[in-house]
Amino acid sequence: MSLKGVELQIAIPKTFDAGKAVEQHQQNVIQQQHNANEALNKEIERKQLTVMDTEKTEQINDEEHGNSNHNENSSKKNKQEKQNEKQAKHPFKGNFIDFSG
Q1: Domain coordinates of the chain in residue numbers?
Q2: Region Disordered: start and end of each range (predicted)?
């Protein structure tokens, strides 16, 4: 396929325009990737600086008063938890439920 002189006068400038458009598109894609990367880095940094878990206030108070109080309190808590487990009742076993409406 051979091109005549008149066809070349039209084809060559359009080739340059198409090349410019492709280059601009590539630059836009690169810029978008760069912006997305920056946003991701900022989000990661923000998450690293925020507090995700807090200590219970009882633990903080125990640490301020010393370990001896902590041991006494923890043994009391363990006894209470064991008693609560023994006293825990099933929501419907052993209870009379009246189904007659």
Answers
A1: 29-59
A2: 45-101
The rounded distance, in Å, linking the Cα atoms of 7 and 10 is: 5
What pLDDT is attached to residue 100? 76
CB-based contact 3:11 (threshold 8 Å):
yes
Q: Encoding tokens for residue 100?
A: 């007659």
**Residues written for the chain:** 101
Mean pLDDT by 10 residues, the chain (101 residues): 69 80 94 96 90 64 56 72 69 70 60
Cα–Cα distance, 30 to 99 (Å, whole number): 69
Specify the 3-state DSSP secondary structure of 20.
helix
> Half-sphere exposure of residue 65, counting CA atoms within 13 Å on the CB side?
12
Distances (CA, A) of 86 to 52, 76, 82: 34, 16, 6
Give the C-alpha separation, 22 to 32, whole Å: 15
